[in-house]
Amino acid sequence: MAASLIRLHFHDCFVQGCDASILLDETPSIQSEKTAIPNINSARGYNVIEDAKREVERLCPRVVSCADILTVAARDASVAVGGPSWNVKLGRKDSTTANRARANSDLPSPFADANTLISAFSVKGLTTRDMIALSGIYYISSFTIAYTRPSPMLLFRSRIYSNGTDIDPGFASTRRRQCPQTGGDSTLAPLDLVTPNSFDNNYFKNLVQRKGLLISDQVLFTSASTKDIVDGYSKNPRSFAADFASAMIKMGEIQPLLAPNGIVRKTCGSILVN
Ligand code: HEM
Hints:
The active site is at residue 11. This is peroxidase. By secondary structure, this protein is an all-alpha fold. It contains 12 helices and no strands. The longest helix has 15 residues, at 66-80. The two termini are 30 Å apart. It binds protoporphyrin IX containing FE. Protoporphyrin IX containing FE is lined by residues 3-4, 6-7, 10, 42, 44, 108-110, 112, 117, 131, 134-135, 137, 141, 143, 145, 148-149, 152, 155, 191, 214, 216. Residues 3-4, 6-7, 10, 42, 44, 108-110, 112, 117, 131, 134-135, 137, 141, 143, 145, 148-149, 152, 155, 191, 214, 216 line the site of protoporphyrin IX containing FE.
């Protein structure tokens, strides 16, 4: 769940800023981001944030926004798996709107090349280095792709059957056994090969060994503009952890919604304040 909460924060902040818009449920006036393509049957941890909000409301009603709770939860999730800690500035307000179209357009695609990924982050004020450091989160994800997607294997099938030079042959054949060229779409495929839930730089070591699962993972090592950073993180876990923390701080400050704008919701799934 730790990685999922960090992802929820990322998917919130990339769509009209860190304003908890991702937590809003569908209503006649709100097109929920929960059903956007990158989120549907995939983003999780909503209930963790809603539970935390309930506790906070009990102690201190209508003061702490859902956006701040999500930001703090992402930091605590990193600490919980042995990752870095950082100070979270507070004061974000919650939105009264969500934007499903922006969730579909602004969250990066797993088929993207390195330049497209770089610009998807740069329009949000994050550097190439921030993007690569944040991607290191995959290593602690206990997520299994096929749990959630109707045709999940499409995400990486083209890569493992590509016979390209950017994939380790042993890795490709292991993955092919799990994922036949046709059918088999309900088979589970862990995003990462090694035991999750401990924060380290193995994601980058895997990329250097050409064992990235998604196309958007492996391009980080095959592309000249990102290769050196991946290489550096694979050798220096401390610089990865430090850069991860600073990238998370920057991500948490994308387009902040501050007073007098925004609201403090009573529950995170709706815009009711009383
Ligand atoms: C660089 C561009 C990125 C792309 C193209 C991308 C794409 C994806 C895709 C396609 C999945 C699988 C979803 C599914 O099949 O349901 C996924 C999962 C995931 N992503 Fe990303 N992602 C990116 C960046 C990030 C960042 C910056 C974070 C967090 C800081 C993140 C955290 C996660 C996590 C934790 C999962 C597993 C889900 C879970 O454990 O609940 N991703 N991502």
